[in-house]
Amino acid sequence: MKKLFSFSILSVFLFFAISACGQQDKSKRPSPPAKVSEKVGAANVSIDYSQPSLKGRTIGKDVEPMDGQVWRAGANEATVFETDKPVKVNGKDLPAGKYGLYMISGSGDWTVIFSKNWNTWGTNYAEKDDALRVPAKVTTASSSTDKLNYTIDKSGKVQLHWGNKLVEFNVAG
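RE: above sequence
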């Protein structure tokens, strides 16, 4: 009987310990989760990402993206681009589905990459998994933002705004 009682107490303790570990509050991360969604034509389009902050650092020097290197276009888990219908991205076909959204920065246009590998941590990227690559227009924003932010408007314009950089591509449903 004493062993059964001890085993029961141990089981309850382990249950609560495992439950507490499995329910970490992602909103308390230094780069909290965010999601943006919009109906573009017939397609529901969303970007699920984590928002790193500059905190006085310089993009390309102290913090990613570094020129010429693949970047997860956010923080923590891979940034996920999802569409429930086939769309065109900058005029190129992208089937319905979930994709890892990656980018490569450069001195001119950037490259936006839609990878079939979307359920991963960080920049766990392999070119063989590319579903689509398109160029993206990069401009200097009129204002600066410390936290990375995505927007999608009804016309299909997708923007990443971070620091004074605006990276833009178009989605047509």
